[in-house]
Amino acid sequence: MTVPIVQEDLDALRAECRAMVRRRAALSASVAVVPLPGIDVATDLTLLMELIPAINARFGLTPREIDGLPLEKQALVYSVVKKAGSLLIGQVISQELLLAVLKKVGVRLTLKQVARFVPLVGQAAAAGLSYGAMVYLGNTHIEQCYRVAHALREGHD
Hints:
The protein has helices at residues 7-32, 39-58, 63-67, 71-84, 95-102, 106-115, 121-154. It is mainly α and 157 residues long. The protein has one domain. Helix 1 runs antiparallel to helix 7 (121-154) and helix 2 (39-58) packs parallel to helix 7 (121-154). The longest helix is centred in the C-terminal third of the chain and has 34 residues, at 121-154. It is elongated, with a radius of gyration of 17 Å. It comes from Crenobacter cavernae. This is DUF697 domain-containing protein.
């Protein structure tokens, strides 16, 4: 996939990726209500192991695609990635890398772990926290990819 040339295509791609994030977040929320230790974190990791590379691929920002760019475009990508503070653009996604990113929403995840053991209200809170954390991580990554793709389209950071 290459970066869309037309701004409207780039905007449509962002909207498509946000819908993909919402679907994964809904699945994460549904698993969060199950009071089995660790199942929600394992599910979130699995979902993110699929979601983040899919977003990178949609924006043309996989390691292979970036390596195939001319050197000046590669430098531009890494300059914008560094400014955005992204750990996930142009990287091979591993569980260790995702765990580092998940620590950014660690308070929400800790609350989710505790909340789901409180019948009904706690489980609803856990689902909401899970959904919110997944949407936050996914949409943050989309915006970082969007910024890089926009810079590539414009030819500057």
